[in-house]
Amino acid sequence: xxxxxxxxFALEIAFVVLGVVALFPIYILVTVAFKSPPAVAESTLAPxxxxxxxxxxxxxxxxDLLAALVQTAFITALSVAGLVxxxxxxxxxxVRGAGRMHRLLLLFITLGIxxxxxxxxxxxxxxxxxLHLLQTPWSVIIFSVGSQLPITVFLYSGFLAxxxxxxxxxxxxxxxxxxxxxxxxxxxxxxxxxGTVIILSSxxxxxxxxxxxxxxxxxxxxxxxxxxxxxRGEFATQWxxxxxxxxxxxxxxxTLFFLLQKYVIKGFASGLKG
Amino acid sequence: xxxxxxPAPPQxxxxxxxxxxxxxxxxxxxxxxxxxxxxxxxxxxxxxxYPTLSxxxxxxxxxxxxxxxxxxxLQNFVRLAxxxxxxxxxxxxxxxxxxLVVVQTIVALMxxxxxxxxxxxxxxxxxxxxxxFILPSLIVGVLWQFLYSxxxxxxxxxxxxxxxxxxxxxxxxxxxxxxxxxxxxxxxNVGFSMVVYLAGLEQIPGELYExxxxxxxxxxxTFWNVTRPLLGPATTINLTLTMVGAxxxxxxxFVMTNGGPGYATDVLSLVTYRQxxxxxxxGYGSAIALVLAMIVAAAAFVQLWLRGKVxxxx
Lengths: 274, 314
Fold this sequence. Notes:
A: mainly alpha; MetI-like fold; B: mainly alpha; 0% strand; globular
């Protein structure tokens, strides 16, 4: 099982072929973005005959992507910060509290993973309207943090339950209060799972479409997905321009993923121990 | 092994000595811990619990978005039972969810088992299979709409191997469209399930495999008796998250087909959105969402029951 024999080689070949198939849509996305309209009409498969950058210039200026980029980054950064702070603190309180009440509350929050958001969509829209938060990024941030808390608390509590509490007790003995113990001792120890939470929630918030479409419509504060959506309506058949816009929109989150990808499996591995 | 529908919240450990002591003090400590959870609970109730409950209440009214709404009992549900669009979307939602849960979980398990071996390309292949998961669903929809377009990339590939005559209207033929959508969804999400399985595989101690090898167990027996049971928690997480995710799918279908042709790819999340936010039928839209929630609860219950059976059989 540990040797690299002919069977492993055959498996490797099969998996490389599968990998090529899985990359095919990405290949199309990237190559079409660099093709002129006649080149796309000529062949959708061939690599770009020349690097046609016009698409990116058109997409950047026409879709007002800079404003959307700033808006999306703002919403994502605040939502993720909120999730990390509230989620880790809640998991700490509920796992370490160790009472019946704490266990019930933990179950109450993690059950939220299975609640379909559609049922609450209308009342929440009314609530945001009554709070005068519609058409402001705060509505999207509040929604993103609240709706992602269940999975975040689940990940943090799974990690915490298998961590030793020796350091915390030592800190307590040394006279640290509850908040100091959490912020100076526990939170730094949560780093691996915080990496997972940051990746998963950044992907989720950055990529969300329906929430900003509902809450921000009618304002200039569009997010990237909403900008791409209306942009696609405008340039329906000019795939080169649409795909160039898409590439610009996904570069930040793809970069973040490559920076933090080692945490993805690690974080889940620790979550599974629970 | 603990099993439950929602991924099991970890059991807090037994109390350690530092938490014993005079009752009053212990109680004080415990209540102190609750303060850490308070902000999260308040926000969770505000954004998830309260809207969900009032959405359920709205389902029994004729609300059209104004301030006034009357209680109309089960009328919305009677209307739903006679609405061919809503009924088609219920069937599609179930077909889509079951197919995704079954196919995506099996493919993810196979990918994870392969990429857990010492392949030279395993690092890069893990990234390749996970990559689509980080794309916005909206963009996955736009991309696959182009891939499936007549004479688009997929048809061109079929042409180049002489199978062009086989190419159907991927998104335009009502007998195929839902399956085309399902393929795109699996492409997008299988990498996530794979990572959960890879994490599960990394938890299995290597000694167990060595012991199995010494006992002369075949590859299949080793999988069935060692790997499979120990992947139980990963499977529970995958089934739950894939199911819940499948029932919520909106963006990709909204962009690719918007439910068409006819009702061929219409799902409950699209119908809910259309009724509530396009047509302004808040009461009826909420009734459809309530049906969706009940399907989730039923599916979760079935899963719990099946897991219970598996546990007993073992």
